[in-house]
Amino acid sequence: MYKMKRIAVLVLAVVLALGAVPISASADEVTINVYNWGQYISDGTDGYIDVNAAFTEATGIKVNYMTYDTNESLYTKLKTGGSTYDIIIPSDYMVSRLIEEDMLEEINFDNIPNYQYVDEAYKNTAYDPDNKYSVPYTWGTVGVIYNKNYVDEADIGSWDLLWNEKYADKILMFDNPRDAFAIAESMLGYSYNTEDTAELEAAAEKLKEQKPVVQQYVMDQIFDKMIRGEAYVAPYYAGDYLWMLDENPDLGFYFPEEGFNFFIDAICIPKGCQNKEAAEAYINFLCDPEVSGQNLDYLGYSTPISEARQYMDPTMAESDIAYPSDEVLSNSETFLALSSETTQLMDSLWLDVKTAAADEGGNSGTLIMFAVVAVLIIIIGVLLATKNSKKKRRANRGKAN
Amino acid sequence: MRSKLLAAPYLLWMALFAIIPLCVVLYFAFTDFYTGAFTLANIIKLADYLPIFAKSVWLALISSVICLIIGYPVAYYIAGRSPLWQRLLYMLVMLPMCMSFLLRTMAWVAMLEDTGIINSVVKAIGLQPLPLIRNDAAVILGMVYNYLPYMIMPLYTVIMKIDRSLIEAAQDLGCNSSQVFRGVILPLSLPGIISGFTMVFVPAISTFYISQKLGSPGTTLIGDVIESQFKTAYNPNLGAALSLGLMVIVFICVAIMNRFSTDDDEGGVVTL
Amino acid sequence: MKRFNFVFTVIVMLFLYIPMIVLGVASFNAGTDIAVFKGFTLENYSELFVDKTLIPLLLNSLILAVLSSLIATVLGTMASMGIHSMGRRMRSLTMGMTNIPLTNPEIVTGVSMGLLFAFIGIILKTQNVLGFTTLLIAHVTFNLPYVILSVMPKLTQMDPNLEEAALDLGCTPRQAFFKVVLHEILPGIISGALMAFTMSLDDFVISYFVYGPSFRTLPLEIYSMVKKPLQPKIYALFTLLFISILLVMCVMNLLQARDEKRGHNLTHKRRRNV
Predict the structure, then answer these.
(1) Domains in chain C, ordered, with CATH?
(2) Is the pTM here over 0.80, yes or no?
(3) What pLDDT digit, counting tens, does each position of B200-232 carry?
(4) Is B189 on the interface with C (CB under 8 A)?
(5) Cα of A94 to nearest chain C Cα, Å
(6) Cα–Cα nearest to C128, from C1, C7, C215
């Protein structure tokens, strides 16, 4: 046994010694914590630029890179507290929500000379009217991605493809309330920013109708499922479609005729940032036309910096999916921040949608209830029976003694 | 008297990091999201989620029973081997748990999907792909797979300790093998059964990853709802109320199971 | 019956190892799709060795798992001894407390601890309270019940006369513990420690709510990666991890077997001398 103890101590010592390296290494250098969407920066694969490594090389500042999957989970992480980040990249409506709740630092634009390259169209936006808190990172649109091998061309064109029973169990849907409601609102002809309870409830009903044909509610798993042909139809961001197209050329994309969402994802510095200047250097680096061009060439999203397009692959720079014409864009609508009551209402309606029984009738729920009650009764019965018999046995034993 | 104090550091630790967080949950469950004032609204809202609670209990119960049925013979077999084999087999049961739970579940998804490994074989034979994934059975499979070692381990630990001479004595007294099993081995392994049942039931009832990956959009378990409250919807108050409901259910189940074992503690397992 | 149990055990073992086989094969796959084998390659392994993010994260996970399981094992074994010598009421009260982290869904444990730490952070006036320490505390807390649940059955099964006999024969309570009780409950302690280690190595739900940017673990990273077509080098990493854990466990087993043999011989000798 002593040998084992010695081995254990030795193992521990080695592990600690090895582990101490990555911990202590970060202590004396400047490191910024970057919290970004998953798969939302060029990371050096397939010969594209490794943005974070290039930044470290250029400035000596290390990047501690982490990812989230929805605006809402970013918000929750920030709201729960206990840790701080230096850079976050929320979407437009989340930026304004964060501004409203005083969760963002004002950016010192003197440290971001590259801001001059950002197109005027992406300044003075509705979500940050005074250009104090955010710098646009990308913009894009939402549309429908479909697999040309399985989806009939006659069925495309509208959002109702996502409700089409022909493709039941092959349809994916957004797993976040804002994007999901937007689709239903498009179909019903409402604004994406409606605060009307009746309209939101109608949208929720519409989403419940869709549930029987939905394969899964997902976010970034859409990549995997669409590329592999596990699902045929999915609403998602146009930029990600271009990324997927490289992996699976059978995928098609269209802008639904009822209208679609236009969004800007912006770089912000949250309150509690530890290295504001380093964070601003990072923003400045991302706004460099060459970096932005190469980065977004890989991502497939659209750049708010026109000059960056010359550093892109021409097919990407001229793609009418990444850069749709003004005529197409006239059919789009941006998200604005909703009041917190409306956000709460939407969240709880969304929860209703997701927890609604998929099979119609809803009898199964009650059936299950009965089954559980029956099982519980049986268990308690067995329990009482064994208890009694044990007592009896013990009593008998007592007598025998 | 002195050895009772051995539990003191543990009790202190648990008070700090288990009881106080529990109070935090209680606090959130009974307060309003906006004002922070006392309210029962969150608790009342639980009624809406009754079918989901029921479904979670149901699936977890089925999984635990299947785990017991599968795990018992395995544990029994392992306990009957020579010490070297016992350790080896025990290790083999433990080993899959060392691999990432996320990756193992992903591997099951890769097996069961419509374009997955099993269905590509099925298609190669010329049959229609089977609906293997996105149903309750797949969720139960995932639970049984992931939590089976939790059942086998305590069972083995207890069965191994059963005095073989008791079994021989019972045999000498004319018991046939099923009588020996029912009269001697099964009652003696009861603490292990309870321990294993608890260890499977609790993670199974609160899982959200398995149901998200292997279940259909209709298989929303209570774990999924709680996760969404804390991860995306940011309504910690409703989330805390839901957690409270879940804890009460689990507590009742565990209490029922523990009634078996306290009896045996008193009776003394060894004295029969 | 015995044959049935044997066949059944083999089948169950196969069942337990199916995903491992899938992942192992995928680590040699030239394509990224786990379900389609596109040809044999070792490229995933060479990519893994030049990867600068996965290995440090794995080390982080290992440090955390070793430390937290060690602390939990010591605290938990002590606690089990204490609980064992408690009166009935006290014992059920303590066991009830042990059940808290167990009956709490993982996610609730995580969230409630996250909230608690955030609150402590406010008191201490630091915004970066989340980090290695908070992860360690959380991991020890959820490991403790597993240790206790493994050790308690051993203690209840142990013949109480053994310890008394040792004490009667002139052992101090400490000697009685190390020479008699520990020997009896050791399998429980080891299985508890191993369980704590694996639980800790693999946890992501609780970690998600108590980790800070300064210290992350491998499961957290995988949880955020699993959404995309996974890079096959992750399969390579886990295949290697699997093989090394297998080797470590085999060596430990052999050592233990040898130790036991020696111990066995010793007691024999001692007996003969007596």
Answers:
(1) 54-228 (1.10.3720.10)
(2) yes
(3) 998 899 888 899 889 888 888 888 888 888 888
(4) no
(5) 21
(6) C215
